[in-house]
Design brief:
mainly alpha, Serine Threonine Protein Phosphatase 5, Tetratricopeptide repeat, DNA Cyclobutane Dipyrimidine Photolyase, subunit A, domain 3, 21 helices, 48% helix
Length: 480
Amino acid sequence: MPKAALLWFRQDLRLADNPALAAAVAAGGAVIPLYILDEQGMGNWPLGGASRWWLHGSLATLTLSLARAGVRLVLRRGPAATVIEDVLKETDAEAVYWNRCYEPAAVARDRHIKQQLRARGVTAESFNSALLFEPWSIKTGQGTPFKVFTPFWGALRRQPTPAAPMPPPPRLRAPESMPRSDALDGWGLLPQRPDWAGGLRDSWVPGESGARQRLADFIDSALRDYPAGRDRPGQVGTSRLSPHLHWGEISPRQVWHAVAAAASHISDAAVESYLRELGWREFTHHLLFHWPALPEEPWRPEFARFPWQPDAKLLAAWQRGQTGYPMVDAGMRELWHTGWMHNRVRMIAASFLVKDLLIPWQEGEAWFWDTLVDADLAQNAASWQWVAGSGADAAPFFRIFNPVGQGERFDPRGDFVRRWVPELARLPDDVLHKPWLAPAETLQAADVALGRDYPAPIIAHGEARQRALAAFQSLKATAE
């Protein structure tokens, strides 16, 4: 009779379209599901607070799903190599299956574990569950990694259509006895005092079923208008699938095929616009895999000489949503309350930090890592470097977002700002994004006193823009 197999869950917290799970079932023996909280194996990027909250909810949901399938999820904490060895000794398992992660520390750890297991005669196999295509499979004509998104996307679109997703197994065979398991509540993933997660609980349903519902709602209500709606933070115009994709509660193949199927009743332009965003996700993982220093070092090495001006006071004002620029502050407050920020507003807030304030992009990257429920090493690093001008296919540094103009363009009626900066809610549209220019009688009628109810701008954008351009020119001068 086939021996049991360990199924090592990681960022693939689902039963449907799970290649490692399918392989464990196909082996014919019992399946022992295992999740390891390996904080040492995360390298320089241990889980942030919002990620820990999400992980707790996702594991709780996965535990219930596995129980319905007939097995129990085993939870262990510690170095993955040690935990796997311990569980193998406690069981008759002779195989370990897992789906690949692509963060540099995970790649090195997994390679070591696979070599050690195979050297001892243990079957050790890994699979692609997180991406449409492996990051080494999309190459230029010269066989090198892509550095620009558009040709990368063209090459990806020329690949065969991603395989259809696999259904979940109806039932899993449990071993005669299960190894011990930690209690999820004992891991301390949830905030205690203070409990800052109320907004997260109101905004999200972690887990596979929550992911499926989110996808269905998006296709039904927002995909049709996605090309324009995705830039409007005051309306529900995006899929908000990013945390579900990061934690693997839904696969990119499931999303791809569901969205592509909608082309029968939704325009090709809308479908392609969304699939292209999945392509950006692929591109960031492609970059991280080939340039593993991306989260710490500028991809363009000349930016190591950029004359940043770190300022703890200004950084704190940005983090708290107290910059005096309503569009920036609304985004930062949305982030703190929900663990998420609309992508258009992420660009505005990031540009303000690195270009108006000249604070290093790594500070923003670290803050987002701690506060985002979709904190993903590849996407976070690539996105911050894109805004800073130091990354691959990045926006040029001299593209400096005007937070007032961006607000007036993408939140013209002020729905987004009024929700997250309620102290300005009674201001009329024409001054909502620039309250410091409102006449005194207008401020008084709206019961707004600048400096009391809402801060004056912490920096003048026009002057900040000139300072940023001068800093960039000095960088160019040192390279000549």
